[in-house]
Design goal:
Blueprint lengths: L1 E4 L2 E9 L6 E10 L10 E2 L5 E3 L3 E5 L5 E3 L16 H23 L25 H13 L3 E2 L10 E2 L4 E4 L2 H16 L5 E2 L11 H9 L3 E3 L1 H8 L4 H5 L3 H13 L4 H4 L5 E2 L6 E2 L3 H13 L1
Parallel strand pairs: 5-7, 10-11, 10-12
Antiparallel strand pairs: 1-2, 2-3, 3-4, 3-7, 5-6, 8-9, 13-14
Helix pairs in contact: 1-2, 7-9
Amino acid sequence: EDGIRDKLVTGVQTCALPICDVESRVELAFELTPASSMDAFEIVTRERAVLAVYFTTEWKTATGFILQAPYVPTPARDNIRQNDPTNSLLARESAALVVDSLCWLRERGALRPGVLNTLPLKRSDFPEDTLLRPLFDRVLEAILGQPLLPAHTSESNPQVFVQGRSAVAASSASLRDLLGDGLLVELAGDKSCRWLADGLPVKGNSVLAKYLREEVGVREISAHDFVAWLSTKDAAWWKGLDEAWLIRCYRYLHTQTAEHPALKRLPIVRLERSEEHTSELQSLAYLVCRLLLEK
């Protein structure tokens, strides 16, 4: 089951508990922004989210959404039992529901970058052998192996997703636009690679950026990587390049001053009266770049 009610988008599934034959409901709810229609809502992080057992407990989930299930509570009913087989089963079912909900959101065009901030992202919040560790493990496994990360794409094809193990980030939008999808595949050596969507940080110290780098293993392509890849190409490869792309490449490389010493060894200069490329006239390479920038 799923739906929108009271600014929440909810997911529900049932499971059979070992202590009885009655199926029990495991539920999840994401908080929405004020928009109320399916084609306009945005999911936001629920602050101080706690586990619910038809009433709120003191168990913080370290996520940005609400989890509800018939967990076995402590005698005081303000918390739940850690080492209880029923609770362990419900935790695994809750983890499966999180993954199912991500797939559900993707199918409805609602799996946007902001949704990822609600997920169990910090390994330290889910130590080994603790009750909710399945949330962290199951979500990471799904992100690595299923197309659940929004990918960068054109407006004409806005809904594209990539597996975490195939996701790549660019050090700058200019490098990403220069390489596009075709040269990224050639550079990365993987036909399944795609650029991550804008709004998914890989740099910096945000929780999501660290998760994408350290847990998902998203690789960032830098100017240094680009030049190192260019160094594997011979003059024949350069000769086959489209002139418009070559000009864009010159302009980009001109701004990457740290890479200029390495460029002097590459056959990047297309001679004016032929289609040959050379690296011998090193000073000419910089002159060509500057002339192109002045046009």
